[in-house]
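Work Package 4 report. The design task specified in the project plan requires that, given a folded chain encoded as structure tokens, an amino acid be chosen for each position. We show below one input record used in the internal validation round.
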């Protein structure tokens, strides 16, 4: 019986010690979604990517119009031109469509690569801002996404956004 009593007392002491330590623990939470939506760097990044890929996007728009125009001509003149000439024009349209699809796919892939690079850069800046707030205000633990619940009083998202230049 005394062995069970000793174990219960030890368990109680361990729990008490843990709770006493936890009371001194300062915890913060950061809403990553909010930062990605509101950080000025996100908008800057979007504009930068738009400028970077605008010429290629315009080229695709021109190609799409060219395909549409050639198909319209083919529909209109299809009955009045020779079979060989019609096949040649259909082949030309098909080769332009294939080229269009290739360029479209390459553009999508390049945009995704650059978005990921920009996102990585933003994540580095966010991490530095979180670290700065955490060190300046004495936080022991700051958590990001994947939290089931976080009280407003431990949410430091606005402080991080302030460092990033939003507020």
């Amino acid at each position: 019986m005394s062995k069970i009593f000793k174990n219960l007392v030890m368990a109680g002491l361990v729990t008490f010690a843990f709770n006493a330590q936890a009371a001194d623990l300062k915890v913060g939470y950061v809403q990553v979604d909010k930062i990605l939506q509101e950080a000025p760097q996100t908008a800057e990044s979007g504009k930068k990517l738009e400028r970077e890929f605008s010429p290629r996007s315009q080229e695709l728009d021109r190609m799409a119009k060219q395909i549409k125009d050639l198909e319209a001509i083919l529909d209109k003149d299809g009955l009045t031109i020779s079979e060989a000439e019609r096949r040649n024009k259909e082949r030309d349209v098909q080769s332009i469509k294939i080229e269009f699809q290739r360029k479209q796919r390459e553009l999508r892939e390049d945009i995704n690569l650059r978005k990921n690079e920009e996102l990585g850069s933003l994540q580095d800046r966010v991490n530095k801002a979180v670290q700065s707030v955490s060190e300046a205000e004495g936080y022991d633990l700051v958590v990001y996404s994947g939290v089931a619940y976080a009280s407003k009083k431990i949410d430091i998202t606005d402080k991080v956004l302030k460092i990033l230049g939003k507020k």
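Helices lie at 2-23, 32-38, 40-77, 83-137, 157-164. Validation will be extended to a larger panel in the next phase.
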